[in-house]
Amino acid sequence: MKKYQYWNSDIIVHPWCDISIINSEFSEPKGKTRNLMITGLEKIYDDWKITLDKIGEPYYLKIWLYEPRISKSQVVCAIGERIEYYNNLFYKVDDNFKSSDFYNKLSSDFKWNAFEDANIYSEEDLLSPSELYKNIEDYNYSINLLSKLKRRNYRLKKENDDTLFYVPKGKIWIGEKVNVA
């Protein structure tokens, strides 16, 4: 952690952590599995908090709960310059945690803020020369996707000579414990 100034712990539960080789998607975990994942994140958070408090320097420690893509959720910590990076990483949205499916699933000691969970597409990447693609079908798919992205009213961000398209997928509830003795 000292070297890279951050660490994160993803949820590693099969099949949700696996890469699909046939381009299929697994439905998100529900019920008991989902609840076990959420309580596991809180346990990781609590363990890391004890360790980070001993370091004696400022740190970022938060749970990122993806809704509805719970399988992407993680605990993230950072020190040094990475704190600012994580504090400015996501696009804030207005919402109340009480409206979330996660309400009452975690300790009431957490304070939550809502951010946009989005897939990000780079115009520069999608316009890569056809020679860089595995086959012509992949190239055509990228060109068609870019055309669709431009027709829709997605949030855009200009970055250097590139345009990023943010396609919303849900929310990320980012929380940390407050008022803990």
Q: Quick one: how many beta strands? A: 6
Write down the secondary-structure element order. Answer: EHEEHEHHEE
Radius of gyration from CA coordinates: 19 Å
- Choose one word for the global shape: globular
Sketch the major β-sheet: 6 strands, antiparallel
Strand content: 25-35%
Question: Which class best fits the helix and strand makeup?
Answer: alpha+beta
Helix content: 25-40%
User: What assembly state would you assign to the polypeptide chains in this entry?
Assistant: single chain
Helical element count?
A: 4
Measured between the Cα atoms of the first and last residue, the distance is 26 Å
What's the overall average pLDDT, rounded?
86
Regions with pLDDT < 50 over 5+ consecutive residues?
none
Characteristics of this structure?
181 residues; globular
